[in-house]
Amino acid sequence: MKLPVSTEWVLHCATTLAQLNPGATASTTQLAQYYDLPAPYLAKQLKALVKAGVLAATTGPRGGFRLARPAASITLLQIVEAVDGTSPPYECREIRQQGRGALPPEECHRTCILAAKMAEAHEAWRSSLAGVTLADILATLPPAAPSRTRLRLSGTT
Amino acid sequence: MKLPVSTEWVLHCATTLAQLNPGATASTTQLAQYYDLPAPYLAKQLKALVKAGVLAATTGPRGGFRLARPAASITLLQIVEAVDGTSPPYECREIRQQGRGALPPEECHRTCILAAKMAEAHEAWRSSLAGVTLADILATLPPAAPSRTRLRLSGTT
Ligand code: FES
Ligand code: FES
C-alpha cells in the first residue's frame, strides 16, 4: 500500500501557497524551484489539485496558482485524494461467493464482515486526514516562516 | 494506494482456519478449492502468514495449516501486514530541505508536521484493524457456519 511520491509535493506546495499574500499566485516554475522538483510532472499534480477544487489557476503571463478556498476549509484529505484518487485500498471481490465454500446469494445481502472492517479502517484514516486543515498546518509554523517563504518563492533574493 | 488482491484471500483463509476443530489443519489445496484461488500463489501468502506467526504449518502427508495462536489474539492488522508489509503508505523524502526553499538543518530536528499528520492517519488505520480479532469476526457468523465450513473444506460432501 503506497501513496505516490507526489503526495509529499502537493502537501508542501499547498502549504506554500497558503502562505502567499491575498491575491498573489505562484507559478509551476517557482514551486518546482522552491522544492527542486521536476516541473512537468509537478504541473500535472497541480492540475489535479485545480480539478479537485483545492487550487485555482490564473492564466496569462503572470498566471499561476493560488488556493481556491480559505486555508481553513482545505483538508489534508482533499489534497491527498486529489492526487491519489478516492478509491479505497482494499478491494472485496466477493470470494465468499466462489469455490467449494461459496455462500448462497441470500446470505450475501450484507457486506462481508471482513470487507466492512477494512472499510472502517479506511474511514478512520480518512477522518484523521479530514480533521487537519491547511490553516492548522500554518498555525504550527514559526512566525517568520511565511515572509521567508514568499521571499524565496518569488526568487528575488 | 492499493492493498494486494491477496489481502482478501488471507483474511478469508484465516477466518476459515479459525473455524477448524482444535488440532485440525487444512491444506493449501483445500483452501484454494474452498475459495477457487490459484494454489501456487495462495501457498506463498500462507507462508507469509506462517512467517508472521499468524499460522502454523505442519508437515507430512496430512500436513497443513492451523492458527498459530488463539483466534482472540490474532488481529486483522497482523494478517494484513503479513502480506502487505509494515511500511507506511506515505513516504517523506524531506523535500523541505531541498531546492530554493530549503530549510536549514537546525529547523528540521523534528519530523515535518505534514509527515507527522500522515503518520497519525496511518496509525488510525492500524489501530482500527488492531482492534478486530478473528474471534470478533467468528462471533458475527451464523451459528451453523463453522460446521458447514469444516464439511466443505474437507471436501467430503
Ligand atoms: S467476500 Fe470480500 S471480504 Fe469477504
Ligand atoms: S519534508 Fe517530507 S512531509 Fe514535509
What does this structure look like?
Chain A has 157 residues and is mainly alpha-helical. Chain A has a domain at 6-88 and 133-154: Orthogonal Bundle (Arc Repressor Mutant, subunit A). Helices cover 48% and strands 5% of the residues of chain A. Chain A is built from seven helices and two strands. In chain A, strands 1-2 form a two-stranded antiparallel sheet. In chain A, helix 1 (6-17) crosses helix 4 and helix 2 packs across helix 3 (39-51). Chain A is elongated, with a radius of gyration of 20 Å. At the A-B interface, helix 1, helix 2, helix 4, helix 5 and helix 7 of A face helix 1, helix 2, helix 4, helix 5 and helix 7 of B. The complex binds FE2/S2 (inorganic) cluster (2 copies).
Q: Quick gist of this model?
A:
Two copies of one chain form a homodimer. The first copy, chain A, contains seven helices and two strands; from the N terminus they run H-H-H-E-E-H-H-H-H. The first copy, chain A, is mostly helical.
List keywords for this structure.
homodimer; 157 residues; mainly alpha; Arc Repressor Mutant, subunit A; 48% helix; binds FE2/S2 (inorganic) cluster; Tscrpt_reg_Rrf2 (chains A, B)
Q: Write down the CATH topology of the domain at 6-88 and 133-154 in chain A.
A: Arc Repressor Mutant, subunit A
Per CATH, which architecture of the domain at 6-88 and 133-154 in chain A? Orthogonal Bundle
This entry's quaternary arrangement is homodimer
What is the mean predicted local confidence, pLDDT of chain A?
Answer: 95
What can be said about the biggest beta sheet of chain A? 2 strands, antiparallel
Q: Which structural class should the secondary elements of chain A be placed in?
A: mainly alpha
Going across the major beta sheet of chain A, what is the strand order? 1-2
Q: Any idea what the radius of gyration of chain A is?
A: 20 Å
Distance between the termini of chain A: 41 Å
Give the CATH class of the domain at 6-88 and 133-154 in chain A: Mainly Alpha
**Contiguous runs where pLDDT drops below 50 for at least 5 residues of chain A:** none
Count interface residues per chain for the largest interface.
A-B, 54 and 54 residues
Number of distinct helices of chain A: 7
Can you say what the CATH homologous superfamily of the domain at 6-88 and 133-154 in chain A is? Winged helix-like DNA-binding domain superfamily/Winged helix DNA-binding domain
Q: In percent, how much strand structure appears in the residues of chain A?
A: 5-15%
Please write the string of helix (H) and strand (E) elements of chain A.
Answer: HHHEEHHHH
